[in-house]
Design brief:
The chain is of the alpha/beta class. It is about 25% helix and about 15% strand. It binds 1-O-alpha-D-glucopyranosyl-D-fructose and calcium ion (CA).
């Protein structure tokens, strides 16, 4: 048992949470002013997406100085104050560790450009190259285009970037680089943070020597993820990182692993695994295609159920995964998983309840507790997500008209989750007194914190009850450690599972809008939670309204 197992975690996207000084950008003081709100929701662990110095080509995931806070967000003193204030409320702060790459404005990269053959050149993957000749490989970056670009200001070298061209990849084969990273991790841990969320961490290991792979698009390129899937030896690097940096501080680590091999799970999150936990992206990955966002099919709640159960089964004897319905890279969960037109508070609570009651660490993303939804994009120009243009181009290349292409990529666009937090129904949803850096979702007049805090039946209070169940003396142990056992697994339109611990709970949901009658496996003792419509128990029979969610004590 670990200190964090029974906790509730919450992701903050600093740019969009709360703006304290009217410049339209959320900041650390804004976050600090809302700690009591988060505490009252039941949050224990807060993950801050990057707040380090950055040119914001990829919204802070391009760090130009890991030892400082970006002036848009505040100062190191503000960070210290935030850490202290969180601690005083018995909350922990974890930061984003972005070490697969840095910004092209980081001093290491600037020095590498001046002297590609020098010590800092070896911090990156830099190769001599003659302009006009083919690039070293045919890999396509995650944000579109080649992973290779000329070193800024030169025509005789190219460098590798698996993400944006302003995010040069760091060379983890170089021990000097690794020492610099460990030093930085220790520096932050010494400042009092509880740990890190590890960004794109599996990408730090490349398949060496570099070679081209068979094209997966007509333009002759191949997704760089193919190269990453051929890499071996990431565990050695991660083991070293754990021993040198995390273990001595007993730091909590949660990894973003994309494309890991299933058989490696024990090595990642087993008893001696390299991380405390990893996100379960199985539900998020349903129906994802190599062609891109435009080709993404709707995800049904039956598919959601199937993905959750598969992960529960995998993790059960190995460790703890972290469950999410969304994050800053994903569409809003309620829009993504609930059928179109079915976004009632009751249905949103159902989805939240199903995810929250699974075995694992629940990670909320800011606004999820309000039931925030995807936004609308009137045109491509208003989209800020640096990956969107390439997705749009792929849609056009596949023959869609501009209007069709915009409509097709909109549901997956990362800006959906990045619109400002909806605090109230006043101008700019109360997020800022200035001009918000990203437009507010027009539905803020309906969906906002101020309205929900006045309404005991709101989505917000439902999440608060879920959190308190996890913290409760009576139920906590079962909710946290109970075994997950699917019930009626093959039944279309029903998601149900037992949590068997010192008590037995049955989590039960009707995934459709028409009501359902079921016969329970035994007579339940009582209803522990319910979304809205009160439920009458009558022996083993149960009548579920559309999108009803209940937790029964068996
Ligand atoms: O994302 C890593 C990642 O694997 C991405 O390919 C992710 O699947 C994609 O962004 C979804 O469109 C992390 C961060 O979460 C993301 O915000 C960053 O852009 C990325 O790393 C680069 O740092
Ligand atoms: Ca601000």
């Amino acid at each position: 048992k670990e200190w964090w197992h029974g906790k509730v975690a919450y992701q903050i996207y600093p740019k969009s949470f709360c703006d304290s000084n009217g410049d339209g950008i959320g900041d650390l003081e804004g976050i600090r002013s809302k700690l009591d709100v988060l505490k009252s929701l039941g949050v224990d662990i807060i993950w801050l997406s990057p707040m380090f110095k950055s040119p914001f080509a990829d919204e802070g995931y391009d760090i130009s100085d890991n030892y400082s806070v970006d002036p848009h967000f505040g100062t190191l003193e503000d960070m210290d104050a935030l850490i202290a204030d969180a601690k005083a409320r018995d909350m922990s702060i974890i930061l984003d560790l972005v070490v697969n790459h840095c910004s092209d404005e980081h001093e290491w990269f600037k020095k590498a450009c001046e002297d590609p053959e020098g010590p800092y050149g070896k911090f990156f993957y830099i190769f001599p190259h003659k302009r006009g000749t083919p690039m070293p490989t045919n890999w396509r970056s995650f944000f579109g285009g080649s992973v290779w670009d000329e070193l800024p200001g030169r025509d005789d070298y190219v460098y590798l970037h698996v993400f944006h061209k302003k995010q040069p990849d760091l060379n983890w084969e170089n021990p000097q680089l690794r020492l610099e990273i460990y030093k930085m991790i220790n520096w932050w841990l010494d400042r009092g943070i509880a740990g890190f969320r590890l960004d794109a961490i599996i990408n730090i290991k490349k398949a060496i020597p570099f070679e081209s792979y068979p094209a997966d698009r007509e333009d002759g390129t191949c997704s760089v993820s193919t190269m990453l899937s051929h890499a071996n030896g990431v565990l050695q690097l991660l083991g070293e990182m754990k021993q040198t940096a995390f273990a001595p501080h007993k730091a909590f680590t949660i990894a973003e692993l994309v494309g890991n091999r299933e058989e490696d799970l024990p090595l990642f999150i087993g008893d001696d695994g390299c991380f405390s936990t990893i996100f379960d992206f199985a539900p998020s990955n349903v129906n994802r295609t190599r062609e891109g966002w435009y080709n993404q099919k709707n995800v049904t709640l039956d598919q959601y159920k199937e993905a959750c159960f598969a992960s529960q089964c995998k993790a059960e004897s190995v460790g703890f995964m972290a469950n999410i319905i969304e994050n800053h890279d994903q569409p809003r969960g309620v829009t993504h998983y609930l059928p179109e037109g079915e976004h009632s508070p009751a249905a949103k609570k159902m989805l939240g309840g199903l995810s929250f009651m699974l075995r694992g660490l629940p990670f909320l993303y800011q606004g999820q507790e309000l039931g925030m939804e995807n936004t609308v994009f009137p045109s491509l120009d208003v989209i800020n997500d640096c990956g969107a243009q390439a997705q749009y181009d792929a849609a056009i290349a596949a023959g869609l008209t501009p209007d069709e292409a915009l409509a097709a990529i909109s549901p997956m666009c990362r800006d959906n989750a990045r619109t400002p937090y909806q605090w109230n129904s006043q101008t700019n949803a109360g997020f800022t007194t200035g001009k918000p850096w990203l437009p507010v979702n027009p539905n803020y007049t309906e969906i906002n914190y101020a309205a929900e805090i006045e309404d005991p039946n709101s989505v917000w209070y439902f999440y608060q009850r879920l959190a308190s169940l996890r913290h409760s003396e009576e139920w906590g142990d079962t909710v946290v450690y109970g075994k997950t056992e699917p019930w009626l697994e093959d039944e279309h339109g029903i998601m149900a599972y037992f949590r068997r611990g010192s008590r037995t709970l049955l989590v039960l949901a009707n995934l459709e809008k028409t009501s359902r009658d079921l016969i329970l496996p035994s007579v339940p003792c009582s209803v522990l939670m319910c979304n809205d419509t009160p439920i009458e128990l009558s022996g083993q029979n149960i009548h579920l309204f559309g999108y009803q969610f209940i937790v029964l004590v068996m």
